[in-house]
Structure formats: C-alpha cells, structure tokens
Amino acid sequence: MRLRNKPWAVKLVDEHPESVLQDPNPEVKIDWENRFADFSRPLEVEIGSGKGQFITTLAQQHPDRNYVAIELQTTAAGIILRTKLEKKLDNLQILRGDAISIASFFAENSVDVLYLNFSDPWPKTRHEKRRLTYKDFLKNYQTILKPTGHLEFKTDNSGLFSYSLMSLNNFGMVFDFVSVDLHHENEEIVTKNVETEYEHKFASKGNPIYALHAHFK
Questions:
Q1: What whole-number distance in Å separates Cα of residue 36 and Cα of residue 43?
Q2: How far apart are CA 9 and CA 79, in angstroms?
Q3: Which residues are catalytic?
Q4: Residues annotated in the binding site, as ranges?
Q5: Residue 1 within a domain
Q6: pLDDT digits (tens, 9 = 90+) for 145-204
C-alpha cells in the first residue's frame, strides 16, 4: 500500500545517509562492513518493511544481530528511520531500493535470514513475475543466503500462499514450518512471533495468517 508523502520523512532520510542507503548503484558493491557497528553479527533482511514495526522490533529484541530493512517508498523509509533513531538501533540499516536488485545488494552467502512479510500478492496472472516468491526472485535469494540460511514468509492472502508453496516446492526448497493459521499454533510459536502492522490489522479482524519457513537444499 502506497503511503501519503510526508515531507518530514523525506527530509529526515536525506539528513541521515549513514542510516539510509538510497537507490544504490547495482554495479557498486555496498560496504556493509562500515555501515554496521559490528559486522561479525548474523545478518537478517526484510523485503518490503512498510512502517517497520516488524524489523525494528527484531532489532531491539536482538542487539547481537544485524538487520537491513529494504523499502521502496521514501516515506516508509523515513518512518522506519525515525524509530531507529528514537530507539538507538545501531544494528539496523535501511535500504531504499527495489528488491529486484537484491542479488547486487549483498555478497553471495552473506545473509542468515530473509523475511517476506505481507508482500503484494499481484493476483493477476500477467503479473506473476512481480511476486516475491516467483522463481527468479528465489534464484536471487539462493545466491545471497548462507548455506545454513533460510526464508520466512507470512501473508493473509490465501492465493499468494498457495502460489508460494507451489513455487518454492518446484524450486526444490525444503519446508521447515508451514501454518495456515499462525496465531492459533502452539503457545511457543505464537509467543515467538513478531507481528507486522498489517498482520495485527488482519488478525484482529479474525483473518487467518499463513506462514512458512523454508531453506534451499
């Protein structure tokens, strides 16, 4: 969902290039080592972070890990940045760019966990290639994830969930966890789950949340 433009957010992003990398050149390697206080920590990435409730919560809960929020909208990036600054999250970086270029954003075998939360379902068949679980995206994820890394996916859209199960299976991925009603799993799983803004909205209406965790062979 496109957010209404907020001039303060655009201004804030422009004022903090040390925290927000804007439209990176795909031909130039990103120097992540100098963008984090401690680059030796595990690296986790969320594609399409929205207002950042999920990724900022993780960064706050796990100061021993590094996080990158990939978000195309400048206003959304500004909202994430405001939270990052308020909570002093030195383990969070924001990349304002298109996930289609994700293989150029990170080195091979460098990412531990990749999160896809409530991605645009692109329901029309002609838009299949834009879905973040389409095979071309999966190839890029396989390139940047470590051999021990994995993908975590959540959505409220049953059609996108069914498509994603099929796409990941056809790509030869191994499923570690699958749920058609995440918020009614056992207590341990529910307690560990970190909600996104959309997730809270949809779940509060009684909509089931679909989820899966998978890794490449």
A1: 10
A2: 6
A3: 120
A4: 46, 71, 98, 120, 124, 156, 196-199
A5: no
A6: 999 999 999 999 999 999 999 999 999 999 999 999 999 999 999 999 999 999 999 999
